[in-house]
Amino acid sequence: MRKGWLVARHEIISNITRRSWILVTVGVPLIVALILFGRSLLMGGGSASDTAESSPGFGDLHTEGYIDASGVLHNIPDDLKDTLIAYPDEQSARQALQAGDISAYYIIPEDYVESGDVTYVDPDFGGFIPEGQSWVIRRLLLFNLLNGDTELAARVEDPTDLTVTALSDETGIDVQSGWQFTIPYATAMILYFMIIMSASLLRNSFGNERKNQVMEVLMLSVPPHQMFVGKVVGLAIVGLLQTLVWATFGYALIRLGGQAISLPAGLEVPPSLVVWMLVYFVLGYTLYATLLAGLGALTGPNEMGSSSADIVVIWPLIIPLFFIWMLISQPNGIVPLVLSLFPPTAPVAMMTRLATGTVPAWQPVLAAVLMVLSAFAIIRAVSRVFRAQILLTGKPFSVGQYFAVLLGRS
Amino acid sequence: MYKLWLVAAHEYKREVLTRSFIVAILASPLLIALIIGISMWTESMQRDGRPIGYVDQPGWLADPVALPEDNRPQSGIRQSELVAMISYASEEVARDALESGHIQAYFVLASDYLDTGKAELVYITPPGDNATTQFSDFLKAYLLADQAPDVRRRVIDGTYITVRTPSGSRQASQRAAIGAVVPILICMVFMILLSISSTSLVQTVVKEKVNRTMEVMLTSISTGQLIGGKVLGIVGVSMTLLLSWLVGLAFLVLVGARLLGVEWIRHIHLAPQMLLAIFAMVIPTYTLFAALMTAAGAAMTDTQESQQVGGLLAFSFAIPFWAIQTLVEHPRGPLSIGLSLFPLTSLSSMCVLLSFSNVPAWHIAASLAILVASAVGAVWLASRALRLGMLRYGKRVSWREIAGRTKLAMTAERGSQ
User: Fold this and answer.
1) With contact defined as beta carbons under 8 Å apart, do B190 and B238 qualify?
2) ipTM summary value
3) Nearest CB to B326 within list A42, A94, A329
4) Which residues of A touch B318 (CB under 8 A)?
5) Across the interface, do A117 and B147 touch by the CB < 8 Å criterion?
6) What are the extents of the domains in chain A?
7) Contacts with A36 from chain B: Cβ below 8 Å
8) Domain spanning A61-157, CATH architecture
9) What is the pTM assigned to this prediction?
10) Is A45 in a helix, a strand, or coil?
11) Domain span at residue B140?
């Protein structure tokens, strides 16, 4: 196995000393930090939406106009009379807008009560953003529809002061509430990218050697399985190292700059989650890197023509991302269970479920065992690809041929 | 110039007239349809059709006079999502019904509900949003029992705001809020295209370098014409792909909306000037990225290395999405202006700005002018990188060297003329 280690060492050193690798490893966190902190500094440490929500009553408002053809707005509160000016027609409102007397105006049509439609003429076109003040007209219309009954208007806006009681420990996840969704989602995406990135490195490494036609020369002195294992181990370490740098940066960001980027207080990642993440990374990487390495050895570098085969191989890893909502909101449902036990979809699906924190202990163990068995079978299948007669046939590549070789039918 | 077009046409035909390209054209709309299908399926799987219970301690909901006839919930709930609501005399009975699985959850209105609004929601697994919204609308209907039916309906249904600019050139309805973010959706499709093609972009000249036809080609064509033609060809291929995806998507949305009877599609207004501005920026942006990635491929000897640089370039395109909140809230702020004028981020920031604000014509024109100048500069840089890369075959060429040696090369060219 000494030659295998030599290959692994070569892969590690040649990759991590590349200027582009260092640039990507350090550059990506730097750009992210720059944007997050730069944004925070530009916004003066707090978001504008927070300010809007915290301002009591109608707060500081721009002066706006309205044309009420429906006759609904007959009662304007005194504190709004200077900020909301009535105009008889659109022509006069437009003139006031051009003169700078108002910043925008509303048109309430005659059939407002039937249709509910209101037009907001805003030169900035910012009607839906949190800072926009179209909420003023909504509240005012509600107030007027209820003949100025503020108590009823407030109750109708929010009919219940609700307390929630869950009768089971397994409460499920409220996917609407930010971090309960974000943490499992981020876990899924991180693992997905870790596997794809490292597996692609291996695929390209074999592809390049196919292109340079050095693989045949290498095989004269290194047995194929040693070369294969050496590359797999070497590039797994390279991928893990890059992820470690990014994870350290992420951890530092949470600890040092949590407030600047509005992270919740006491956000903790359980150690068991990190351990399972490593286990599923190693297993997922072995599975996909092996398949992609075989592909690289047959096709050469990743070019237009071979990308369809890549998609066929990578596809199962993407499937759990389609079901991410279900994996998070119903982690113990039948679909999440099947996806997290089926080896090709298991890494991403199981990690997403584990991040929700409601998975029975036997399930990740069983999924890992199934993945080990699959990885073993796939390594054996891909080793067929490395037989000289297959590498040297010179036949044009096809997806069908690749899978035929894997299944021992070619 | 004839040779440049010859190279461009060759590149275009080589990529477009292949089976994999046709598969790529068809695959994306099908993939999106699949994603939408899976989302709808998972949503329907999560929907709990069981009734919802309530215990009315104040005895308020028991008044049959208070229940209006048109108490159909309005807050965006479809008819198929409606669940039955069952009244229980006490909490114990309601809990038995919950534990036996007859109901998905129950509400208990406190005896002082009418004064305080206090209520409790009890469940084993959280009920669907449709059920809680329906119950909320149910309460609203009772609260508004004394109002005229049309007022009651309007209060529950709410107000729908349509924002438009004074000239009427831009319009977005709350009934189809997705219409406002169409620029962002186009930008995302562009981002997918960029990330898919970044691998092939860095390898634009690799094939010719590897099979050593580059030297032969360069005896009859200049590096500028070769790179210009290749970039032009690839831009043509990618724009064909982008256009076919967008047309496919629009077709899917329209047909889907018609088949499913989706009403809100009618409220989407797309301003032709806005679409024109985006598409005017798409072509130079792609040319810029294509040329920069080609330059990376030409300057670096290792495919893996050039791919990582290509990935980093594609990553820079997404930077404005990290700062989306600032861009939306401060469209005239320094960050918004800076990102929308910087060529690598101008398209993505402009898409965000166009979605949520009215961007002045001078701003779009300035971004476009900088972008076009940068794209031309990048093609020029790529041709220089190829020239130097050829002279120093097998050795890596640094960016500084490209700029430095370029001066020497230009001097030499001038000398030879």
Assistant:
1) no
2) 0.71
3) A42
4) none
5) no
6) 2-32+175-406, 61-157
7) 322
8) 3-Layer(aba) Sandwich (3.40)
9) 0.67
10) coil
11) 50-159
